[in-house]
Amino acid sequence: VQLQASGGGLVQAGASLRLTCTASGRDFTYWPMGWFRQPAGKEREFVAAINWSGGAPDDMTYYADSVKGRFTISRDNDKNTAYLQMNSLKPEDTAVYYCAADAVLPRLRTGAAGISYWGKGTLVTVSS
């Protein structure tokens, strides 16, 4: 089973990027998926999570306060893929971004130990 994050790059403040998390080896249709990031020299932090498509309408997406209103998480079950659309990027968004999947949404939301699957990261650098 693999999760592969892609789409990172170097952009100027105010620009947009879309990250893609492509899953292989199993069907993640019924699994919540999420994004985390780790700035250089800092701990990894939660960014966003999305429930499986059959989740309750008020329990579908979650965001860190620092990205609310700027980032949007989505998924395409036909492609076994999750996305993170990042708009109005700021220098403080600079980090390595990782995608993850777990059968338990709260585990993703809190970044708890024991998350089942992690992808390799993709670097996002936002210049001022």
Radius of gyration: 14 Å
Based on DSSP secondary structure assignment, what is the total number of beta strands? 11
Portion of residues in helices?
A: under 10%
- Counting DSSP H or I runs of 4 or more residues, the number of helices is 1
Which regions are unreliable across 5 or more consecutive residues at pLDDT < 50? none
What's the pLDDT, averaged over the residues? 94
How is the main sheet built? Answer: 7 strands, mixed
* Structural class designation: mainly beta
Shape: globular
Which series of helices and strands comes N to C?
EEEEEEEEEHEE
Terminal CA distance reads: 37 Å
Strand content: over 45%
What characteristics describe this protein?
128 residues, mainly beta, four-stranded antiparallel β-sheet, 5% helix
